[in-house]
Design a protein that fits this description.
This protein is α/β, with parallel strands linked by helices and 609 residues long. The chain has 19 helices and ten strands. The chain has three domains: 3-347, ABC transporter type 1, transmembrane domain (ABC transporter transmembrane region fold, Up-down Bundle); 355-440 and 521-532 and 551-609, Rossmann fold, CATH 3.40.50; 448-519, 3-Layer(aba) Sandwich (Rossmann fold).
Length: 609
């Protein structure tokens, strides 16, 4: 890690300390820490802002010689006004060129830093999210996550724009302007500073109120995003139950609530935005009138040129003050989103990969040792123990909600058991390097997800370097090759979002090919044939038997149709999170208990014992 990266991390740690979370300083420094890794761009941006600020205010120095020496003598005989005139012109020309160069430099590099910051935040959000365990997503709503990763991040970047545009430029404008104002009349300058401070304090207090109101608005807006997500993903269910009007009415009510919250924020921002020019206008007018009285009574040696310079410099000085006031108002609005983004980041810890062991040389036997697991209240699995030896096909059956899918998820290391452990070859799965473990695992979930890519890319997802021959072979084993050849572009046909352009059975077989191509030593099949007809199902299991015969492979199958598991080496019957029976099909039929009752229920006839 470079020195500048360590410096960036220290700023991030400083800004994320509890006492600075929720403060204006912490809200600015934390997103800014992602951009200062490009330190050279920061220096060039500051240099450009400094040149612009000095040049912009410096041009007003042409006012005094122009008013006091050029204008009074322009018609006078024998008076030399050319020197002051060329001085005035020179200040204006040099100042204009320097102002343009400084402003362009500042704008380019501030935009550079903004984009670099955006990419830094997006990368960390995306990477940390991908590395979370499944239990993490049970605590967050998808709509809320999407809102934080999109709308809230965009609003957070507005803070950077305000900081880099207004707040970087303002100090140089203020300092150079203050020097000119003090040079014109330090007495009037002191009056101006005191008056602005006194009148501007209520606007500062209102800015803090804006932030609290904006936080409530953003939280509620995230809820609306979740509502839209549920409408799109659950559209079919809404239609089937005729709930269109009820759902629309509910969304109407929540939209109105959001409208009121949003307008409350905007009302406060309008007060700040309108109050700032009002305050500065009153102060500027008072200063001008006071200056005229001083000239009239010849007090403090104030001249017309100095007064005009003071008024012009004060007006220019008020502009960065007004810009900072607007930026402060907007920042308090955007900082609410910034808090939500970093609240999410802080809630994520990349799980530590405890071990670095490889599965090479370890037999792929899978065992559960007194495993208990729950998603919240109530155990889904309660003291589950069994072993699937290398080369065995073990089926898990039982009533819905018994914990069958959860059992496979634990074997896949998607979750960690609360008590007990899952082992492979007698070694806790947490001791294996995660990448190596998953490389030896083939999974077909109950509801397979396909990407909006080509069929080829979807099958090769588990093995990106797969050859065309390997892809075709995997598709043939999964009994999907013939269908793929009928598609317009064959294996290069692009599937729709979530694979919606193919049927459920076809999605399942493509997902099966994706698992098969890995040639994994452990296969986890969760209702892998539930969407297949009887003929396709038989072809699948014939292909599966051929696949298992090539080397030791351990297979765990969750099945609802008991006809698919009659040839399994062992069948586990899971009920209410416990294994209540286990044995071969024949043994369980003879026992005449739960498995036999399930079998006879499915086939509506008693099995001869």
């Amino acid at each position: 890690m470079s020195r500048i990266e360590r410096f960036s991390n220290r700023i991030r740690e400083y800004a994320s300390q509890p006492k600075r979370q929720g403060t204006l300083l912490g809200g600015i420094l934390r997103p800014l820490s992602y951009g200062i890794t490009s330190w050279w761009a920061v220096l060039l941006m500051v240099a450009g802002a400094m040149v612009y600020g000095v040049a912009h205010m410096g041009k007003m120095m042409a006012i005094r010689p122009g008013v006091d020496q050029v204008l009074p003598n322009i018609k006078a005989d024998g008076m030399d006004f050319w020197g002051p005139l060329w001085l005035t012109i020179g200040i204006l020309v040099v100042g204009t060129f320097a102002e343009a160069i400084g402003k362009s430099t500042k704008r380019f590099f501030s935009q550079y830093i903004s984009y670099r910051t955006a990419i830094g935040i997006w990368r960390e959000l995306f990477r940390k999210t991908l590395h979370q365990e499944m239990g993490f997503f049970g605590r967050w709503k998808v709509g809320d996550l999407i809102h934080r990763m999109n709308d809230d991040v965009n609003r957070t970047l507005e803070i950077l724009k305000l900081v880099l545009d207004d707040l970087v430029m303002a100090p140089f404008l203020l300092i150079s302007g203050a020097v000119i104002v003090l040079y014109a009349s330090w007495q009037l300058a002191i009056f101006t500073i005191v008056a602005v401070t006194f009148l501007g304090y209520p606007l500062y207090r209102l800015g803090k109120i804006i932030r609290k109101q904006a936080k409530k608005r953003q939280d509620f807006h995230a809820g609306l995003t979740q509502d839209r997500m549920q409408m799109l993903t659950g559209f079919k269910t809404i239609k089937m139950f005729g709930r269109e009007e009820q759902e629309a009415d509910r969304f109407d009510g929540r939209s109105e609530t959001f409208f009121r919250k949003a307008m409350r924020v905007f009302r406060s921002k309008c007060i700040v935005k309108g109050g700032t020019p009002l305050v500065t206008g009153i102060v500027a007018a008072a200063g001008a009138i006071g200056g005229l009285m001083l000239i009239r009574h010849d007090i403090w040696g104030l001249t017309e040129g100095r007064l005009i310079l003071f008024v012009a410099a004060t007006n220019q000085l008020f502009k960065p003050i007004q810009d900072m006031s607007k930026a402060y108002s907007k920042m308090n609005d955007s900082l609410a989103s910034c808090d939500r983004v970093f609240d999410y980041l802080d809630a994520m810890d990349i799980p530590q990969d405890r071990g670095g062991r490889s599965l090479n040389g370890v037999e792929p036997s899978v065992a559960f040792e007194d495993v208990t697991f729950s998603y919240g209240d109530g155990a889904v699995l309660d003291g589950v123990s069994f072993e699937a030896k290398a080369g065995e096909v073990v089926a898990i059956v039982g009533t819905s909600g018994g914990g069958k899918t959860t059992l496979l998820d634990l074997a896949a290391r998607l979750y960690r058991p609360q008590t007990g452990r899952v082992t492979v070859g007698g070694i806790d799965v947490q001791e294996f390097a995660l990448d190596d473990y998953l490389a030896n695992l083939g999974i077909v979930p109950q509801e397979p997800f396909l990407f909006a890519n080509t069929v080829r890319e979807n099958i090769a997802f588990g093995k990106p370097d797969a050859t065309d021959e390997e892809i075709v072979e995997a598709a043939t084993i999964a009994n999907i090759h013939d269908f793929i050849t009928t598609l317009p572009d064959g294996y290069d046909t692009v599937l729709g979002e979530r694979g919606q352009t193919v049927s459920g059975g076809q999605r399942q077989r493509i997902a099966t090919a994706r698992a098969v191509i890995k040639d994994a030593r452990i296969l986890l099949l969760d209702e892998a044939t539930s969407a297949l007809d009887a003929e396709s199902e038989k072809a699948f299991y014939n292909a599966l038997e051929r696949l298992i015969s090539h080397g030791d492979k351990t297979v765990l199958i969750v099945a609802h149709r008991l006809s698919t598991v009659t040839n399994a080496d062992r069948i586990l019957v899971l009920e209410n999170g416990r294994i209540v029976e286990q044995g071969t099909h024949e043994e369980l039929i003879k026992s005449g208990r739960i498995y036999r009752r399930l079998f006879e229920t499915q086939f509506n006839q008693p099995e001869n014992s």
